[in-house]
Task: inverse folding
């Protein structure tokens, strides 16, 4: 098996594992250690939009700093894969959960594991939590953390929804009090695919039963180099896209208690800054994800919420309204939200147009780098594999948001 980065393994596996969805499903895809986090969650499937639930289980023992670094830098690349997916013409509701395990700072009685974020569509909260992870330890109990993820999370009950666990680590899959065979069998019995990402050689992954765990739960297994630096290609479009991302933030009308509203706004900016601290490429990739249907802030932002709940403004108390709408008539409030909606759509359109140019530039640069090195880049390998597997499986490519 080839060695990939974390994002490459996740992106490839998402498409391969999607084949486990019912035959008549049509999907179109284009190419802190802190206290428990409180996040806003919602029922993922209301009969209108399909659901996608993904749990990411990261080993945060001493040797895994590189793994966490890859997760931080490639989160928005992964999100973009969902942003362009469609089922019956609809963009799915994406929720992601995050667990850490194998960290000796966590209670031994609880298996050295922690649910960092429950299944949530608040992708900024997910990003914040990733940047809060640190390493220490430890003992990695893969079976136990898989079992906990299956039991604790409020997985979608949509019969044809996509539900998957991605677990990454470097120690044998066999450690801990819960047999991995039992945990993986319990997951697939509930329709949850388990994909394994072993940080090490293919032989170690096979001997350590990472491949077998994935086979039991109808998933895919990969081997990655967790210490491999993610190559970020600086694009001429990045500066403009990042500026448009800041303009996009100004269209958000966060609602709820004042402290809650302020936290949403601050965290959106904080995650922009976290992405920028890694590279302009990561910041630009986050901006493109923000301009997509996967970055959905229903139940937090009035523009996104009003699309599906036409009565939301009538339901809110005066003190729950954003400052921009204070002392306005109901008619004026609705007009302002629609104005921001139109402005956001225009900015998103500009970002998406630049994103097409940016992807073309990246593809050309990746080809040049591959020719110079004499080897395929990760992007080349992932894209070519996706194209073959999608075509062979009857998937359509293209589409958009």
Result:
């Amino acid at each position: 098996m080839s060695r990939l980065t974390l994002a490459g393994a996740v992106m490839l596996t998402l498409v391969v594992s999607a084949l486990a969805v019912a035959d008549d499903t049509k999907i179109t895809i284009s190419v802190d250690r802190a206290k428990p986090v409180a996040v806003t969650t919602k029922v993922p499937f209301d009969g209108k939009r399909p659901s996608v639930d993904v749990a990411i289980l990261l080993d945060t023992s001493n040797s895994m700093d590189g793994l966490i670094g890859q997760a931080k830098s490639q989160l928005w690349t992964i999100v973009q894969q969902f942003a362009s997916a469609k089922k019956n013409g609809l963009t799915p509701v994406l929720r992601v959960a995050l667990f850490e395990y194998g960290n000796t700072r966590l209670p031994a009685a609880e298996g050295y594991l922690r649910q960092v974020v429950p299944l949530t569509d608040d992708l900024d909260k997910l990003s914040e939590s990733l940047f809060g992870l640190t390493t220490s330890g430890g003992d990695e109990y893969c079976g136990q953390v898989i079992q906990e993820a299956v039991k604790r999370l409020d997985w979608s009950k949509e019969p044809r929804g996509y539900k998957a666990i991605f677990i990454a680590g470097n120690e044998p899959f066999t450690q801990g009090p819960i047999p991995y065979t039992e945990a993986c069998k319990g997951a697939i019995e509930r329709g949850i695919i388990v994909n394994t990402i072993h940080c090490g050689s293919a032989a170690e992954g096979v001997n350590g039963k990472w491949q077998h765990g994935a086979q039991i739960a109808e998933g895919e297994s990969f081997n990655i180099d967790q210490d491999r630096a993610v190559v970020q290609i600086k694009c001429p479009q990045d500066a403009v896209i990042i500026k448009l991302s800041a303009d996009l933030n100004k269209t958000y009308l966060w609602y709820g208690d004042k402290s809650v509203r302020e936290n949403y706004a601050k965290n959106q900016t904080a995650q922009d800054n976290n992405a920028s601290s890694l590279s302009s490429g990561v910041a630009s990739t986050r901006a493109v994800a923000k301009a997509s249907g996967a970055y959905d802030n229903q139940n937090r932002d009035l523009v996104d919420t009003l699309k599906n709940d036409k009565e939301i403004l009538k339901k809110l108390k005066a003190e729950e309204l954003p400052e921009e709408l204070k002392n306005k008539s109901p008619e004026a409030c609705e007009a302002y939200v629609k104005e921001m909606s139109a402005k956001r759509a225009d900015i998103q359109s500009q970002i998406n147009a630049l994103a097409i140019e940016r992807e073309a530039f990246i593809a050309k640069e990746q080809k040049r780098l591959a020719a110079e090195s004499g080897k395929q880049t990760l992007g080349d390998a992932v894209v070519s594999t996706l194209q073959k597997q999608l075509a062979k499986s009857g998937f359509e490519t293209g589409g958009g948001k």
